[in-house]
Amino acid sequence: MSSGILENNATGLEAASIGSLEDDPIKPMRAFDLKVSAVTQLSEHFRRITFTGTDLALFGSNAEGQTLDLRVKVMIPAPGHALPELSNIRGSLQDDWYQSWLAVDESVRGVMRTYTARALRPAVPAHGDQPAIAAEMDIDFVLHLHGGSGPAAEWAAAAIPGDSLMLVGPCARWGDCLGIEFAPGEAERLLLVGDETAVPAIAAILETLPAHVSGHAVLEVPTKGDFLAISSPANMEIRWLARDGMDHGVELSRQVRALIAPAACELGEEPEDVDVDATILWETPVAAAGHGLYAWIAGEAATIRELRRYLVRDVGMDRNAVAFMGYWRKGQALS
Ligand SMILES: Cc1cc2nc3c(=O)[nH]c(=O)nc-3n(C[C@H](O)[C@H](O)[C@H](O)COP(=O)(O)OP(=O)(O)OC[C@H]3O[C@@H](n4cnc5c(N)ncnc54)[C@H](O)[C@@H]3O)c2cc1C
């Protein structure tokens, strides 16, 4: 255990807020010390937490200012313990921050979980009578509180305005924005498939699609009450599926099979088997040139593995045109 990290912690957050940007080395990722500014219960299982933070203006996005499926790491402190210090000055991460964090005893270091930046709104300066508005970020947390809860879902369920959260995400000063996987290239037809954990990413993607794109978004959520209002300038049909107590992924697989039929003549390539209990299923190619179909699929790893096999082997889709991401695994805690 690296006790130095914990000892520094009492002064760490204060130091983080007083360093100047000139002293703050430019790195791909940085730590953002955020405060909850609003909590909105979107439905029984979706809770939107809105954050502000002095350095949020430094949060990265793509060249168009979009976040799409951009992933962030949220750091939840262990009960009764402050988070180990991750930054040198302001939010600039220590070079070995992740190893240092891992070296801290599990019972006190807290947990790291992966979420999607559902929306990032830049600050608006004061204008006439209108007061300035601080930059804000929304994260939509799924509350999986029954039959397998976890520290991140529990943190979100209890969050109130004024609470703090440390988040690790891309730094705008770096240039390239790390953490965006949606890469459809020139594809004009899209298939977006996911369970509730992928709804924030799919919603953010749908909102930014150009009008000439068409296709389907298929979303499986716990109940009908979790169907959210999502708009898109593109010609995308959004199909919501309520699980209503059925096993995870059953409806999702059925609908994808109904939408995209297997190839009539030949089987496609057999994708290598992935042990979803030992490895993270993650295959995110940049779509090859062409205007065909691009698929983006994320959710519970076993369901995604099954869909990957169906689309690549049975339908014969080019695996370079499909992004598959295991966002979580039933029965396991993933960081
Ligand atoms: C790139 C990426 C983006 C993601 N974006 C989001 C997002 O925007 N919103 C979001 O809510 N999640 C998102 N997830 C999924 C999220 O990271 C996991 O659900 C995570 O396990 C939640 O952490 P936890 O501490 O609540 O539960 P954990 O401690 O990780 O898990 C505890 C138990 O709960 C089970 N579990 C975990 N998630 C669920 C679930 N959704 N339903 C039922 N059981 C579950 C686990 O299998 C385990 O048994 C994303 C994951 C990735 C990889």
Automatic annotation (TrEMBL):
<dbReference type="Pfam" id="PF04954">
    <property type="entry name" value="SIP"/>
</dbReference>
<dbReference type="InterPro" id="IPR039374">
    <property type="entry name" value="SIP_fam"/>
</dbReference>
<dbReference type="InterPro" id="IPR007037">
    <property type="entry name" value="SIP_rossman_dom"/>
</dbReference>
<dbReference type="InterPro" id="IPR039261">
    <property type="entry name" value="FNR_nucleotide-bd"/>
</dbReference>
<dbReference type="Pfam" id="PF08021">
    <property type="entry name" value="FAD_binding_9"/>
</dbReference>
<protein>
    <submittedName>
        <fullName>NADPH-dependent ferric siderophore reductase, contains FAD-binding and SIP domains</fullName>
    </submittedName>
</protein>
<dbReference type="InterPro" id="IPR017927">
    <property type="entry name" value="FAD-bd_FR_type"/>
</dbReference>
<dbReference type="GO" id="GO:0016491">
    <property type="term" value="F:oxidoreductase activity"/>
</dbReference>
<dbReference type="InterPro" id="IPR013113">
    <property type="entry name" value="SIP_FAD-bd"/>
</dbReference>
<feature type="domain" description="FAD-binding FR-type">
    <location>
        <begin position="29"/>
        <end position="177"/>
    </location>
</feature>
